[in-house]
Amino acid sequence: MTPEKVLILYAPCGAGHKMAAKALADYFSRQAGISVEMKDILDFAPAWYRFIYRDGYYLLIKKFPKLWSLLYQSTELDYKNNILVRLARKIENSFFGSFYRYLELIKPTELITTHFLPISVLKNKKRDFKFSVVVTDYYPHTLWISSQVDEYFVASSQVKQLLQQKGIREEDITITGIPVKSMAMGEPDCKHDLFTVLILSGAGGVGDLSAIIKGLEKLAGKIQVIVNTGLNQKLQAKLAAAAKKSALTIKVIGFTDKIYEYYSMSDAVITKPGGLTVTECLTFGLPLLMINAIPGQEEENARFVEANKAGIMVKDVKQIPAIISSWLAEPALLATMRQNALAAVPHDSNERIFRQVIKHQGC
Questions:
Q1: Model confidence at 274, in pLDDT bands (50, 70, 90)?
Q2: Closest to 120 (Cα-Cα) out of 140, 99, 146
């Protein structure tokens, strides 16, 4: 029996969940005999709940990071009996009636989610499809944990071990890596005779990029800089104007679907350590300087990178020029970091997940 219908779910709380879902959907859609649908789980919720869930998340991480950290830690404690987690899951079930009707209509044979919200929505619901979860960070928070999940797809052996410690059976966990899209790339449009530093600000364009660039000006003539300001057009215009006056060679870009081309022409990356961004950079063998980590999941991602000696978590952006200078002075060290980055993650995550899904269906 072939898996006739694969439903892939995500939630738009951080760009990575959607990116991972899209990478999987694109890969699965190219396989014969499989019909794929990708949906935002919050599209099935009331508008007010969607607003609170999505925009509340962004408000907390940008304006109240300490409060977000407290919430993250409080829901992590006593994971088996956490009253906040149990209450949230009980309430959430009442908001997704249209989602349950949608499942009855399309009748998927396999459901895969790249966000933990569907775990709550499907808890204790009768179903006749396999339910798999892709953990999109390098630490499995309590909200990912449920005995209702048939299989977990995880980034590393460390994540697998932590899931086992939280009660998930070893046979229900497969190390696949975090899904990233295929690496079709065009020709670089920046000269590559200088060491190239790619700065990523995240989809919202957060972080004091002006201070970072100003600090890097002391390396003018030794490096060139590509800055991605995400969706922040105001910041893009500001940095583009400043670039014209800078001694540095600087290219400023906004949100782009050609980010892999910029990875391919870069030598190092300065970025927030989101799960998908970290995975992409490691897949390209790019040493990381990680800044502005969201308390909780992104701090854990940064620890994973540092443990694999593929990057450095920077607390003060004033440290960045000195670190890059040391890399320029020690090419052997930088080469080792590149090899560490490449070795830290699987490079065929979509294929690994696909093979497991095929096993579920008895093919």
A1: very high
A2: 146
